[in-house]
Design brief:
By secondary structure, this protein is an all-alpha fold. The chain has a domain of 104 residues. It contains 21 helices and two strands. It has a two-stranded parallel sheet with strand order 1-2. α7 crosses α9. The radius of gyration is 23 Å and the shape is globular.
């Protein structure tokens, strides 16, 4: 294996293991900022050693043990936090001959959920909670978080730094909350799971259109959360949404990893077990009654697609109505854009074009590829190919995802009657 191949492999391992690593270290040192620093120290050591020694059989355990050693040395050197020091000594008993399999047990898995609740503590602002959780648990870069919220990268970085300092100063415990404390954090936890799942479902940047590991982790923790708070309809709604969306993975990309749009997907490839699980979760949400929340509404939309054998059989009128309801309780230009797509399928592209006209000067969408992408599709359906070409190429220039850029340029170049060709 070349050094470049080794580094790519290490980066892939890091994306998979970093959240567990940071969560387990936070349990030990009770400082989420320090835990992240220790995890990155272990990554740097792996980058130095693994290209020569080879990738270990259990790389996650190797990283955990290396990070624990760094923590041990640091605490011994500085003589800080004597209680933590003694606890770590017991944890690291026999550390010169570590049991790698024991390092990544169920306790570390449970630590992931604790980490999310810790980072969603009410002492932090909503924006800080979400940014910190996405960074630590979701493994998203500051750029990816900035793109997700359509804000500057420097703003995201500042929020994360301040959030770590606040948690450290307040000595927020690394425990699962109970009662009212749990309820106070639940909305933020759901939002974090939702955003991480979305990043996995449609990656903001990089060479891959989807990042299944993020979706799998979000769904796994969503299922755990549904057991923890079984009477919360929105928890079941979010689980339902993630189950149904996950069912499409095999159909969403081609053999070379290229994106396949919903209307072009082979629905035979949709995972029927995940669809059934999603519909069951939606039924549980409905049985609990109460006011429709945003996750339950989106699960209803996903269910409309899941129940349709073909794209043409989809109940677009119901989907448009559901997006209208979603816009009432959770207004955003992205919701309006999705509603426009549903309206175009139900009533034609002309109506949808008129509907999105007020969004043309929206500050949130000005640097997003989503608006020109939707406009390009609507214009292409009307045969206004020159305008569609301009919109697709503009969308391609705005997206940070290589696969999505390729798709948009391909759509532009395939438009008949245009003298230009996408480069």
């Amino acid at each position: 294996m070349t050094e470049a191949d080794a580094h790519r492999t290490i980066e892939a391992i890091w994306r998979i293991e970093s959240a567990r690593l940071i969560a387990g270290l936070t349990r030990l040192v009770r400082d989420v900022g320090l835990a992240e620093d220790l995890a990155h120290d272990a990554l740097i050591i792996a980058m130095e050693r693994w290209p020569e020694s080879g990738i270990p059989d259990n790389p996650g355990a190797w990283l955990m043990t290396t990070a624990k050693r760094r923590a041990f040395d640091m605490l011994r050197r500085n003589q800080l936090h004597k209680r933590k020091y003694s606890e770590l000594i017991r944890e690291m008993d026999g550390y010169y001959q570590p049991d790698f399999d024991a390092n990544l047990g169920s306790e570390v898995e449970d630590d992931l959920l604790r980490l999310i609740f810790m980072t969603c503590h009410p002492i932090l602002s909503r924006e800080a909670r979400i940014a910190l959780a996405l960074r630590l648990w979701g493994g998203l870069t500051t750029l990816e978080i900035a793109r997700a919220f359509l804000i500057s990268e420097s703003t995201v970085a500042q929020r994360i730094v301040r959030a770590k300092r606040t948690l450290r100063a307040a000595q927020v415990p690394f425990d699962l909350p109970e009662g009212r404390d749990l309820e106070a954090r639940l909305a933020s936890v759901l939002e974090v799971l939702y955003l991480i799942f979305n990043e996995g479902y449609s990656a903001t940047s990089g060479e891959d259109w989807i990042r299944p590991v993020l979706c799998e982790e979000a769904l796994r923790l969503g299922r755990i959360l549904a057991e923890l708070v079984p009477k919360d309809a929105e928890v079941h709604g979010l689980v339902s949404l993630m189950e149904i969306q996950s069912s499409r993975f095999r159909a969403r990309i081609g053999e070379s990893g290229e994106p396949i749009l919903l209307e072009d997907q082979n629905r035979v490839q949709w995972d029927q077990l995940l669809i059934r699980r999603g519909l069951d979760a939606l039924e549980r949400a409905e049985s609990l009654g109460g006011v429709f929340g945003p996750y339950r509404i989106q699960a209803e939309i996903a269910a409309c697609h899941a129940k349709s054998k073909t794209a043409s059989e989809t109940d677009w009128l119901r989907i448009a109505a559901l997006y209208d309801a979603l816009g009432q309780i959770s207004p955003s230009p992205i919701v309006e854009l999705n509603r426009a797509v549903a309206l175009s399928r139900a009533f034609g592209p002309e109506i949808a074009l008129e509907f999105i006209e007020p969004l043309m000067n929206d500050a949130v969408l000005k640097d997003s590829h989503q608006l020109p992408s939707v406009r390009g599709d609507l214009l292409a359906k009307l045969g206004r190919n020159a305008e569609a070409f301009a919109e697709f190429t503009r969308a391609a220039s705005l997206t940070r995802n290589e696969r999505e850029r390729e798709l948009l340029l391909k759509r532009a170049s395939n438009l008949p009657g245009t003298s230009n060709s996408a480069k």
